[in-house]
Amino acid sequence: MSNEEDYLQEYTLRSWLLTTDHKRVGLLYMASITLFFFVGGAAATVMRLELMTPKGDVLGSPDAYNRLFTMHGVIMIFFFLVPSIPAVLGNFLLPLMIGARDLAFPKLNLLSWYVYMTGGLIGIWILLFGGVDTGWTFYTPFSTMFSNTMVVTAALAVFITGFSSILTGLNFIVTVHTMRAPGMTWFRLPLFVWSHYATSLVMVLGTPVLAITVMLVALERLFHIGIFDPKLGGDPILFQHLFWFYSHPAVYIMVLPGMAVISEIVPCFSRRPIFGYRFIAGSSMAIAIFGFLVWGHHMFVSGQSMYAGMVFSIISFLVAIPSAIKVFNWTTTMYKGAVWLDTPMLYALGFIGLFTIGGLTGLMLASLGVDVHVHDTYFVVAHFHYIMVGGAVMAYLGGIHFWWPKMTGRMYPEIWGKLSALIVFVGFNLTFFPQFILGYLGMPRRYYEYSPEFQVLNVMSTAGASILAVGYVMPLVYLLLSLRQPAYAGPNPWGATGLEWQTDSPPPVHNFHDMPVVTAEPYDYSPEAFQEEHDHAVSHASR
Amino acid sequence: MPQFDDVHQQAYSSTLGMWLFLVTEVMFFGGLIAAYTVYRARWPEEFAAASRHLLWPVGFVNTIVLLGSSLAMALAVRAAHLGRDRETVRWLVATMVLGTAFLGIKATEYYIDYRENLIPGASFRVPAEGHGEAGAGHGGETAASLDPGHFQMFFVLYFFMTGLHAFHMIVGITLVGIFAYLVRTKWFSGHGGTQVEVIGLYWHFVDVVWVFLYPLLYLIDIRP
Ligand code: HEM
Ligand SMILES: [Cu+2]
């Protein structure tokens, strides 16, 4: 142990609220994102209760249900999924992984958290005082003309939070370009860093378009100026183009960081160098770029021309290729590896399974004909939950478990970790798989009543949701309890490669005692040493 | 700056950061320009007719004023790199003055538009063809045959785009003012060469945006 203080030494509130340390900012984000996750989750729970019976008997009015699913969507997308992995794990790890003392702009980083909180608190305020009923997509002309809820305030909240994501993306890109340790060449960067670099590009290029779009909605609502209102010379389809130009790439903002986490966990727990490093790095960039070209697959039934629909359909198939490359590379890495089934790996395996199902159903949706059939049904709801919740949330939880010893110096009880991963997986499938069938049978989304023949599947889904809820609360409890133990995790409990494991846990304020110099390729795992390493790791865990 | 190894790394980072920020700005205006392109392609007559109601000579003068401010800014950057603090401050102040002049002219123009009921909303009136004597009744179309909604759309986009640009000018003028003060009080380590250069990038960007907006909005269909 060294004489330099670790970054958690100071306790005062002031020291947290004024910190510019990327690690602390990451933890600030973690606390607030957890809060939003559970608020959004509470909304989901009530929705599922409502849908347990075919009649609207819980909330009593369709309006209340509309406001609920809107807030659930807005909170989960803009205040949880978009910032989750980049702002928490990315902030914490990116400088450590490239051997830097901090991000390039530490004050901007802190500012981004304040911006995020401002947007988020406005969001909560809306939830308490009225709500919005447009759905998180704010489709015009409903949002600009007919809805009499707090659309302008919601637009403001989304607009503001957008800036925190722009600032984070900008900070990451500059940091990767300018702050790498000696010897850390581009092709020695951990894949986590590559993915975050790609994500940041999407954030920087896409978010401003969303910002301007919601601003136009707000202005149109306030002044009736008619950008999107056909009566005043506008065009509602233009809104959809602008909105999805951001929001399709945004799904990559949500899932690329998830892939980043998986690309770290899989080689570590398979004890093999990752298969096809350059392909994975390249596919991240390809996803980021192609992601901007496929927004029209959300608009097959909007009245855009049939030829546009066909082109968007074909390009959408092309984006599946880089995603599939990643899945093949992960499975190849595991093949013949010595797989340790510890908690992070269980979450990673869950990710791969759920992401694959979500991705394959995505291909179905990208086929024009199928989409016309299942458009705006529960099939779509199931699809995006498989991708975004099954993907991003599994990866987020896996990442939290993987780096928890690094962040806090504490080990969590492995048995509880494994149990939570299992419960989440089972609960998740029970919740969302029935929704594929429901959608295929024709149950529309965003309805709070449905015809009785759908009830059995809906009850299954609600039952699954309650199991899932247990699975989500568990880590919160045992991770927080683990903080009561002393910080004995040791610098590298998993025997992992990567610069972040070469410093203390928790790391010192400026990350490294001596600046690291990189001389080796990443993911330098050897299968031979695995057994001893695992025993070593387990003994760490139970100390 | 404890996170950096040396001033070179710091300069590289801040310049790259500003360039990236400008990329986000391009996307920001890009959304509007995309909307403009769509609507103009769809309703060329209304857009051309509406554009004739803008005062292109005023826009022209403003373009010159703004380019002048960019020149002043370039000279400020040069002076900062040469370490001539007083000269830097002088050029920065000149930049501010020209920027403010631009805004003043723009405000006058907005006022004239307001007088002619060109502000979109309830009081919007489709103007009678021709601005004063200029080009009355040419081109065959009369104001009556054109769709008022599409007509108004031009002004929506005009006010939004130039308004957003003006907002960027206000931010820019404030920042330049702060930087001038900081250079004067020798607050920067060195002479603020990097810092002034970074703010200069922003200023030139705002300038370039105008250079695109001017022809897009004012010069669609001018006829002498
Ligand atoms: C805890 C388990 C969850 C359950 C039971 C659940 C349930 C639901 C339901 C019933 C809907 C409404 C579908 C509709 O009628 O359109 C919905 C929509 C949605 N959910 Fe979830 N959800 C859960 C978790 C999540 C999570 C963790 C996220 C994101 C991280 C998420 C993101 C969304 C989004 C973006 C929508 C679309 C909202 C909209 O259409 O406006 N959900 N969810
Ligand atoms: Cu999409």
CATH architecture type of chain A: Up-down Bundle
In the predicted model, the low-confidence regions of chain A spanning at least 5 consecutive residues are none
Please outline the major beta sheet of chain A.
Answer: none
What's the overall geometry of chain A? globular
Relative helix content of chain A:
55-70%
Q: How do the helices and strands follow one another from N- to C-terminus of chain A?
A: HHHHHHHHHHHHHHHHH
Measured as a percent range, the helix fraction of chain B is: over 70%
- Give the assembly state of these chains: heterodimer
Mean pLDDT of chain A: 92
CATH topology annotation of chain A: Cytochrome C Oxidase, Chain A
Q: In percent terms, what proportion of residues of chain A is strand?
A: under 5%
The number of helical segments of chain B is: 6
The greatest inter-chain interface is formed by: A-B, 41 and 36 residues
Tell me the strand percentage band of chain B.
under 5%
Subcellular location (chain A): Cell membrane; Membrane
Pfam families (chain A): COX1
Main location (chain A): membrane
Family (chain A): Belongs to the heme-copper respiratory oxidase family.
